[in-house]
Design a protein that fits this description.
GO terms for molecular function: helicase activity. By secondary structure, this protein is α/β, with parallel strands linked by helices. Helix content is 44%, strand content 11%. It is built from 28 helices and 18 strands. The longest helix has 23 residues. It is globular and about 80 Å long.
Amino acid sequence: MIDHYGPPPTADEVLDALDPEQRRVAKSVDGAVCVLAGAGTGKTRAITHRIAYGVLTGVMQPGQTLAVTFTARAAGEMRGRLRQLGVPGVQARTFHAAALRQLQFFWPRTYGVNAPRLVDSKVPLVAEAVQHCRMRADRAELRDLTGEIEWAKATQVAPDDYVAQVAASGRKPPRDAAEVARVYAAYEKAKSGRGQMDFEDVLLLTIGLLDERLDVREQVQSQYRHFTVDEYQDVNPLQQRLLDLWTQHARSLCVVGDASQTIYSFTGATPSYLLGFRHRHRGAEVVELVRDYRSTPQVVGLANRLLTHATGEAAKHRLELVSQRAEGPAPEFVEYGDEPGEAEGVARRVKQLLERGVRAAEIAVLFRTNSQSEAYEQALADRGIPYVLRGAERFFERPEVRQAAVLLRGAARSAGGADGDGLAAEVSAVLASGGGWTPEPPSGSGQVRERWESVNALVRLAEDFSAGRPEATLRDFVDELAERANAQHAPTVDGVTLASLHAAKGLEWDAVFLVGLTEGMLPITYADTDAKIEEERRLLYVGITRAREHLVLSWALSRSPGGRAHRKASRFLDGLRGGSAASGASLSAGRGPVSRAGEPFTPREKRRKAGPVRCRVCGRGLAEAAERKLARCLDCPSNVDEAMLERLLDWRQDRASELGQPAYCVFTDATVTAIAEVQPSSAVQLARIAGVNRTKLDRFGAEVLALVAGRDPKGADEPAEEVFSVAPEDDVPAPPDDEF
């Protein structure tokens, strides 16, 4: 075992920390090596120790070594591990970051001008292109068109070739292929006319520069002699073309991946480069990592069984994982009557885990699409459980974090080194004096608590940083923060993670809830070919292998309370739960669904049938969660009463302070805005606002109605009227059978 607190390890100590298969990887520092690494098998450990072993034995030079991966988070983790292993000079970057660095260095020297400016987002330019083509597209269509342009560029399809390529590949574009091609061409023209480039252009321009200029290519190839590529199953043709140019004369190339975790084919990613590596590189060593150190035998066994039903090329190369952990609880399969019941059931189980000592940050709720998150956000908020919606915010852009960084930079300039109590104590003192940090969290309102959590995350990061580098100074820590801010590698805030299955890739938790596992959702409705169905299966495999110990898989038979129970559990669960609900969530006569643990489900009050939500301004059907809450398009004019909104926000803040909970546990911002716009005069009208469920109506309904009516909410003690009985069919239409 390597001691991170002592001197850097020797080459032999680097090998001693590995299992036999990982050791084979580490010692393969010359030539080509392909690592087929299953989930949880320590692939990052293997490849970072390989780099460290190569450097410590003199085969590799840190400055001549480049490790590339697909996320800034993974690159940051790799750099941190290499620092701990005593080799801090190795470059670890994403494909785009490495290419951008080369482009910005060589472009001015080659052409005498700066490289084109990188656009923040394609969507505004796509919207402009749509308008130029005299077409119309809503926000969802703009996102689809943007994704299609990204696919075309990643697979090296030009606008003029797009129609033919779509026809040849059988791809189904978001709208008529000729229209997409026109938008694509107009987008490229608008972008280049402004001297801008997008992320795909970063790779394309770098490839063009290396192709055209022999002197530049030779300089890059002489600079980097050793390459490591993580998550190689996610490489697309554009990235592979760049990699071929980089590695043309490389001394060593190590790729690592798992074909069973290929879930990004919609971006052009393909596992064919991983699976064909040994044929393109004759004599390449191939090493399989199958010892799973992450998950219990029960979780690993379920993951293995799922892949026994897989078909296709990736399935032929599946790895049979072997858990190295002690026995754990069996995965649970739970069937619910409706989606709100599923969300409430999951929140209840999360609460139980928290009471048993599982940290909130070690629990995740994973779903197929981001649109499923709202119900779980609401259910967790109802129980006062903090949560983090992964990808919803940028940590280092928060005002309190920016202020803390300024304070730390100022202190670092005036400090000669860490004080006698160490770096963590110094950071705590600086943030306590001017950053609002206290050793104990505040008991007050949600915003105050949220700001404290952000600053406290920096304190915890300082503790972790100093543990890995005991000699580190405050200046070193400030440099670390700057590097993380550039890479958006934020420390973890202690809350339950809500994320899509795609966003969960590369992460792990003690407890994972896989929700919404129904036909039409997983596999998703538009997965209409065998290849797409198999990718959906791999997506579930990724979700299962995120769990270390506790794993719950659930589904709901209907969309809303009182709706027809026409849904079916995902076909991927066949053979995993004994062929019926009895092995997971059984149906007990007279009692309704019962979980594996024998806990009866709490029946929900019957509600009126909910029909499709339409904008109350223009009448368009609403798909996004924020729009459904407001009952109008975000683009439609708001009739909000600003004074009413202020009174509601003040009231919410006071109630949250009294309850000792974040403000969103009372009502979310969208719900408060909707109340201010609608100004309900009765409990029935209030209950029709998304986010006002039975619990919230009983708890806060009378106060809200009093506030809207201009009365003192503290004097409102009349019970809210019964509004959750089933409404007549002609009052509110039931949702159609094919609407999910």
